[in-house]
Amino acid sequence: MADVLEKPKAVAQPKEPLFSKKNRRLISDPFNDNNPITIQVLGICSALAITVKLYPALVMAISVVFVLVAANVIVSLMRNMIPNRIRIIVQLVVVAALVALVDQVLKAFVYDISKELSVFVGLIITNCIIMGRLEAFALGNKPWRAFLDGLGNAIGYGVILIIVAFFRELLGSGTLFGIQVIPDAWYMVNGGFYSNNGFMLLPPMALIVVGIIIWVQRSRNTKLIEE
Amino acid sequence: MKVLHNFLERLKPNFEKGGKLAKYWPVYDGFATFLFVPGHPVHRGGAHIRDGIDLKRTMNTVITALIPALLFGMWNTGYQHYLALGIDATFLEQFIFGAIKVLPLVIVSYAVGLGTEFFFCVIRGHQINEGYLVSGMLIPLIMPVDLPLWMLALSVIFAVVIGKEVFGGTGMNIFNPALLARAFAFFAYPAYMSGDTVWVNVSTSAGQAVVDGFSGATALGTLATTGTTVFSAWDAFVGTIPGSIGETSVIAILLGAGILLFTGIGSWRIMLSALLGGAAMGLIFNAVAPYALSEVQQQFMAVPYWHQLILGGFAFGIVFMATDPVSGSQTDTGKWIYGFLIGFLAIMIRVFNPAYPEGVMLAILFMNTMAPLIDHYVVQANVKRRKNRILSQGSI
Asked: What is the ipTM of this complex?
């Protein structure tokens, strides 16, 4: 009898290595073909607002990496328990809890930066990249893959943030991470020939810098160009 | 002329397909068609179109129209300089000093702008067109004379690349490139584009000094801060006041406007409606001046409406920038609305926000953005009107 009721044997699946080609693409795609900012055009508001200086941009990038990776993993772990009809609320609770955590840590350890980032830390909750990845990926994938996907997208976002902030701080303030890199003697007030570009400090220039990055990216990778 | 033509013909094979320099065909083509009408021979007799106005002639006409403002700007630069130093100089001395100061700006503007344009044309294999010829003359005329040349060059590159090339080149731009160059310089280097010290060249050589009590402020600058100006309306009309190189003289600008209107290249609808818009806003300010919050603002608002129209870059802007056929409205009704709002907003920005005395620049750029929207509604209204006519006749 027991032989008859024997459970159907699970089809032996080849165990996927942790860094299979498919998994590696989860991390590498957001850098190029599927960058959250330059291709999906998500998370633009924070990219414009906090890229005047490199340091806040870096802090912001790290915060988003933490929130997105953790949220992706947590939601992926809970994906079979979340009732479909209230999934957005559940995701929001998870993200909001993580953002509150980040906000408190920033306030405790880097208070100045926290003040500078002001509302934009809280607004990570509504960052379209995070909700987008939770909806599109974490709800349908296992934690490890969700982890890689979160890491890839958050770094893809952070890299653009840092590139934009690099140019804006260098050309707008003549500094990098607050350290002056353009010699004092170059400035016109000191008899030199150079002057900082005040336009770089204004948000429109961030939009233009992002636009130029998109331009460069598309001319290097022609398959991104739509007909 | 024959010699030049033969020379170009001799060079031609090098640039044609298969030639050594085929890559640079756009450069050759640009120069050759600039000098000669491309060869499509027509018979002497019979009905043939032998001549048609094209982009090149349009551009050349606008440049001709700009020459009075340019020449006056050169003289005024010298006049203001010697006035500031308290030196009696002859007309010729004043003009030569101004020419030495202004010409480098013009040369840099053209060299950098055309260089950028050639570069893009060669990369993309487009034909070179003459889109930059007018912008190249406009840009130096709307800058202060002491602007460092590299800032001018950077503004020009910005205007050509971000203002024009990213949208697809000449004729595709949303904004007027010359104004974009000025807006870039204005926001990037405010210390060299606004304030009281940039409008008059006060470089001194040995034994010279700036006279006591000299102020290099523009009429609008002092109006915004003190509510009064030392310059009479006649000064502003003739143009013997500090300001951007080409913007000061209303007479020189009117000469240019005459050329544009006579040849039909500038739209009279835009010029007239902008004038009306500016006058309307001026009249409104005159009427509400007693209720303004501060005394300075009261005085500024009480400036007669016709005086507002001859101050600052208003005249230059509505004659040469607002009438840009690419970035302005295309429909006739649209031109009225577009022009009116430019004048209206220009005076409004200038009075309400003393930080931006050049309201006309921002007003034109703003209306450039709105022009396609205006056209859209004008066209839709026309479609609707005609549809209603058919329906009311009951012919369907």
From this structure: 0.78
